[in-house]
Amino acid sequence: MSKFPVIIDQKKPIELLTAFLQKGTIPNALLFTGIEGVGKRTIATMFAMACNCLSKEPWSFFQSGNQATKCRICYCKACVKIRSGSHPDIIHIKPSGAYIKIAQIRSLRDMLAMKPYEARIRVVIISDAQAMNPSAGNALLKVLEEPPARTILILTTIQSSDLLPTIVSRCQHIRFNPISCKSLEDILVDKEGLDYDDAKIVAILASGSLSKALSIAESKNRVSWINRRSWLINTLNLDMPGQMSTQPVVSLLAFAAELSKNKEILQDSLGVIKSWLRDVIVYKSCPEKIINKDLIDNIQHVSQKLTARDLIAKIEAIRTAQKGIKAGANLRLTLEAMVIQLAYEPQT
Ligand SMILES: [Zn+2]
Q1: What digits encode the pLDDT tens for the residues 206-234?
Q2: 222 and 106 within one domain
Q3: Alpha-carbon distance 63 to 5, whole Å?
């Protein structure tokens, strides 16, 4: 951790952790859940520092600002070691390849059988705990059933249902929120120097994840996402509603095929189309509140042609496709159905 972390929009987790520290009642195992890039690992490391800091000042490392929380920089021996990743009793376990393997949990168990070298409280952070294969999960369960002295385990994952229920039930569950668009925009403007309009678009694309927002904000990625947005909107002919019904089906099917090729960014691409449709609706009553401000001419044009009802039906078509995809429906067929609903004017 070279740059000192800023944690945003995680008031509740921070209050819970601070209460454990103040009361001296720290559970043996914590489970941090939430989407990628909201600060789970960062807060786990900060918590390890709070548990082991040697400074005489009481730990006030979670200083609450308005929405951002800054970590106090402490230069005591323990905090410096933890920050640099060289503390012998702060153990990080993460997937090796696709999985966390049983060998990793066995060697953890051997380490935990010994006393901590120097920590007041040893902290084991298991990142992406959902990557434990069943045998690793069962081996970890044994550790949780007989918790070693002066040791806390912190597991991170996206949702608790990704883990064995027997593991979840032995952990104190702490939920991390997606970061609000407004907070992401502020960070992008203040810390990354983006202009306000760009920050709005990037914040939408990031869907609540700070790490994703920072990655998109890099100018190379930003340009490619802005190009992708043009491609999505132009291909669907959403900016030329008069021509919607003349868009040949074959080119729409090709578009669905193209979308299905890039699974990693598919949900984000659908999010882009949704944010644009939302703008067309919003434009009708509050034009100043649209997100894609650089596309205002298109948005104005389309909002005159389509009714709010048509637009809501299109947004609904995307939502249905997103749900279907998450539930494992046939990707290509789902996208084809969605694209056709999007491109053609509803028959009323
Ligand atoms: Zn310290």
Answers
A1: 878 898 899 889 888 888 888 888 888 88
A2: no
A3: 12
Identify which of 72, 92, 65 has the alpha carbon closest to the alpha carbon of residue 10: 65
Amino acid at residue number 69: T
Where would I find the H helices in 134-195?
A: 134-145, 165-168, 181-190
* pLDDT tens per residue across span 77-96: 999 999 999 999 999 999 99
Domain of residue 166: give its range.
Answer: 6-175
Task: Give dist(CA 94, CA 101) in Å, integer.
Answer: 10
What is the CA(76)–ligand 1 centre distance, in A? 4
- 284, 145: one domain: no
Task: State how far the Cα of 105 lies from the Cα of 103, in Å rounded to an integer.
Answer: 5
pLDDT class for 325, splitting at 50, 70, 90? very high
Token pair for 333:
């067929």
- Helix, strand and coil content of the chain, in percent to the nearest 5, comes to 60, 10, 30
31: CB partners within 8 A, 6+ apart: 129, 154, 155, 156, 157, 160, 163, 167, 168, 171, 172, 173, 174
Helix (H) or strand (E) holding 29: strand 29-33
Q: What is the pTM of this model?
A: 0.76
**Residues 37 and 166 both lie in one domain:** yes
Å from CA of 79 to ligand 1 middle: 4
CB atoms within 10 A of CB 215: 15
CATH of the domain at 166: 3.40.50.300
- Determine which helix (DSSP H) or strand (DSSP E) holds 71, and give its type and residue range: strand 68-71
Q: Cα(316) to centroid of ligand 1, in Å?
A: 51
CA–centroid distance, residue 71 to ligand 1 (Å): 11
CA of 122 to the centre of ligand 1 (A): 15
DSSP class of 130: G
3 state SS of 157: strand
